[in-house]
Amino acid sequence: MTAMSGPVQAEDVAQDSPDQGLGVDVWTGRVTDVGGIPVHRALPRRGRRMVGAWCFLDRFGPVGVLPDRTMTVGPHPHIGLHTVTWLLDGEVEHSDSFGNRQMIRRGELNLMTAGNGIAHAEDARAQRGGSLNGVQLWVAQPEATRHGPSAFAHHAELPDVELGSGRATVLLGQLGGLRSPVSVDSPLVGVDITAAGAVEIPVETTFEHGVAVLSGELTVAGTAVDTNQFVYLGTDRASINIDFGPGARVLLLGGEPFESEVLMWWNFVARDRAELERARDDWTSNSGRFGHVDSTLATIAAPRPYWLA
User: Which residues of 148-163 are buried (b: 16+ CB within 10 A; e: fewer)?
Assistant: First the structure.
């Protein structure tokens, strides 16, 4: 299986369209089959690369785990981003080049900060049967921190808040007076929400927001959507109305419009192609920039950048 945390491909990215104010834009995640596991990529997409600093969203599964169908992501590098892994079901072991080794399970969150460079692997071979289901996201780091040190944090418990007929788990940022302990370096919010019927969710008016439908049918701001669709809501909203059908679950993402344009290629987030090329060369030459990951999985080789082909 290729990297759960990537790679970004040329067809995923293009110039963003202008913010749409109170308009609603809906799309279905681009479907890929990665080692037999279905993945729906909602971000980036042509015309909408980011929501705040959120720049990547892959929904993997749900899929029944078999001996030859599970997550086996060998060591691969990152720069300039946080990876956010949120499991809805199953378990995956994270290992990285700073010596961290952590099993993540349902309802837990991993945050890895790449900064100037880190490598990691993701391995679900310890899980025998059952379901694997989750979300991996990237958060672009701002100029002030993107060349800084790398880090890793695991959060086994996150705050829950009641929202009318439903409940919300605050992954990042704050909602309803509760703040997540997960620390990032941009003004953001990320919330996992389940409910029955209509819920009015208060949001920050200066943030742009999007809603990823994890399961079920529902309406977002009066627009009907279904599983694996994404709703971009723009800025200038004081609240978002979501009417949940049976079994519906969403991931609400938001943040201040990002400070600058970013370039995303493979597993890297940068500002220009020269940075991307240097990171690729450092990984390929084993320069020491990304360190060594203690993993029995095969290291993933970097492809040649498409603009050099």
Answer: eebbbeebeebbebeb
Residue 222 buriedness (CB in 10 A; 0-12 / 13-18 / 19+): exposed
Is residue 142 within 8 Å of 148, Cβ to Cβ?
no
The model's pLDDT over 259-298, given as tens digits with 9 standing for 90+, comes to 999 999 999 999 999 999 999 999 999 999 999 999 999 9
State residue 68's pLDDT score: 82
Q: Judge residue 278's burial from the number of C-beta atoms within 10 Å of its C-beta, 0-12 exposed, 13-18 middle, 19 or more buried.
A: middle
Q: Which residues contact 18 (CB under 8 A, 6 or more apart)?
A: none
| Residue 42 · residue 8 · CB < 8 Å | no
What domains are there in the chain, each with its CATH number? Answer: 10-255 (2.60.120.10)
Q: State the Cα–Cα distance between residues 262 and 143, nearest whole angstrom.
A: 10
State how far the Cα of 189 lies from the Cα of 184, in Å rounded to an integer: 10
Is the separation of the CB atoms in 209 and 237 below 8 Å?
yes
* pTM exceeds cut of 0.85: yes
Q: Report whether 84 contacts 109 (CB < 8 A).
A: yes
Task: Indicate the residue type of 255.
Answer: G
The count of other CB atoms within 10 Å of the CB of residue 294 is 11
